[in-house]
Amino acid sequence: MKACLLIIFASLVFSPAVWAQKQFTKTYRTNKNVRLQLTNMTGTITVYGWQRDEIRVSAKMESSSAKMLPESSNNALTINIVRDNQGRGDIGSINFKVWVPYDSAVDIETKMGNLEVRDVSGSMIRAKISLDGDVSLSNIKADTVMAESSSGNIFFDGTLQSGGTYSFKLLRGDINIRIPFSSSFRLSATASEPNNFALGPLGNSGLSFQSGGRKVTGSVNDGRANMTILNKRGTIAFILR
Questions:
Q1: pLDDT tens figures, 97-152
Q2: Are 161 and 142 in contact (CB under 8 A)?
Q3: What is the layout of strands, in order, in the sheet containing 22-29?
Q4: Does the model's pTM come out above 0.70?
Q5: Per-position DSSP letters for 47-74, written without gaps between them
Q6: 105 pairs with which residues across the strands?
Q7: Tens-digit pLDDT profile for residues 170-199
């Protein structure tokens, strides 16, 4: 029995899959108004806002051959996995958890994998997935928000800023927008089918349907922000709080 356990233990410890994995953890001192730019190939990225004037990066890499060469200053941190691994073949998934100051601008992108941003109030948030994955933006107070995915779902929960711009684009999946009942914005939303809209209380706010019911336009309250939504194959729903 002991011999069997030793064999199992040795196979786990010395297996290439275990040794191939590695982890990167580092903290960078920054200003409050810092910009995070993170470009990944495959894997999840989760960004959290916090009170500290620093960025903490934690990354788990499937392959020991994966390279990551961050570029940092007081005003910005740039991580570009695509650039750092050109010509290296398949490097597997890299999963990130990043903590940034609340007032940071966040620009994250991946080919495959989920993107999530929580509790950030900087000037801009951009989250783009080229192929497949969900985008989730929670407790957001940014002036500019851009969320895009080819296949997956987009969820936005935040407060629209006066003069702000909010853009959501999806080829296949569902888009859910959760905003305060008192939100003021101009809307242009396009879906593939008329029955793909779930406007909730906004249906009585003076919005109008065009293009055979596949497009909704108009102003909600004073129309102080701009919101553009495009979903080529899926639903567009508003949840007011």
A1: 999 999 999 999 999 999 999 999 999 999 999 999 999 999 999 999 999 999 99
A2: yes
A3: 22-29, 54-61, 94-101, 45-50, 115-118, 135-140, 154-158, 175-179, 236-240, 197-198
A4: yes
A5: EEEESSSEEEEEEEES-TT-----EE-S
A6: 35
A7: 999 999 999 999 999 999 999 998 889 999
